[in-house]
């Protein structure tokens, strides 16, 4: 994911042959004698065989760049995004739409119980946006490396899916079944330390989600063909050491973006267990990955990368 470790290793863009327009003679030949009943004096049309367009073999269903697979994933992500945005808006506005005849019961009312669950469709919308942009940015700026896998929907499967399902489950339980249980904030109130309010934590999470997504997307755009989702072990001609722009401020900005984006989603959801779990797992993952990746970068770029590494940090704690 670093701008300097990637190379366009995807299937090369196919060269499609356009059908050639056949040259057909439609004129008539003059005849000095009687017109032949068979030919009626017309010249035979000599039509060259039309060249058929051959699609890239990798674009067929089930292949690496399956057009059907790309279309299906894009449709599902779009539907999930719309469902997430609509669901979040409805749940946020639900208490205001609640009619006076539907009075709150002693537990705070159904509306007040459902309203905090806007976090779940928000998380769905954030995930959909992230995965769509992973594919679209790759397709736009590094076309040759694009494949169905560029959506990253099955990356680190099934651990990735389990982590997100756990986040959904914890948030749902926190605001439904366990809504009366003592919160982390109430327990921590006994500590002699000032703690941020739930609203402040949520706003901080929203900011991290927005900043993390923006940084990762900007890193992919700037790196262009030097960005790849897979670590490259051989230097290609398209490899370039990018040290300007966002890379002048952050080393491995795409990793920075995802790390803080993921933690931000857990702050918005109000998850405690998953926040700790995400932090531990992602820190371990990026720590190992960056260490391995930078060994290759030093081999590719020598002292140039060593000096760059000294100047610029990752902004991921202790990495």
Tally of strands: 0
Architecture of the largest domain in CATH?
A: Up-down Bundle
Which band does the percent of strand residues land in? under 5%
Main sheet: strands, sense, barrel: none
Separation of the first and last Cα atoms: 16 Å
| Count of distinct structural domains | 2
Specify the overall morphology: globular
What is the radius of gyration?
29 Å
- Specify the number of helices: 9
Describe the structure.
The chain crosses the membrane at residues 74-98, 118-139, 151-175, 258-283. Its EC number is 2.1.1.100. Residues 19-41 are annotated as: Disordered. Its main location: endoplasmic reticulum. Keywords: Endoplasmic reticulum, Membrane, Methyltransferase, S-adenosyl-L-methionine, Transferase, Transmembrane, Transmembrane helix. This protein is mainly alpha-helical. It has two domains: 57-155; 191-319, Four Helix Bundle (Hemerythrin (Met), subunit A) (Up-down Bundle), CATH 1.20.120. 51% of the residues lie in helices and 0% in strands. It is built from nine helices and no strands. It has helices at 67-97, 110-114, 119-141, 159-175, 184-188, 198-223, 253-269, 273-301, 303-311. α3 (119-141) runs parallel beside α6 (198-223), α6 (198-223) packs antiparallel against α7 and α8 (273-301) packs antiparallel against α9. The longest helix is centred in the N-terminal third of the chain and has 31 residues, at 67-97. The two termini are 16 Å apart. Mean pLDDT is 82; it is low at 1-46.
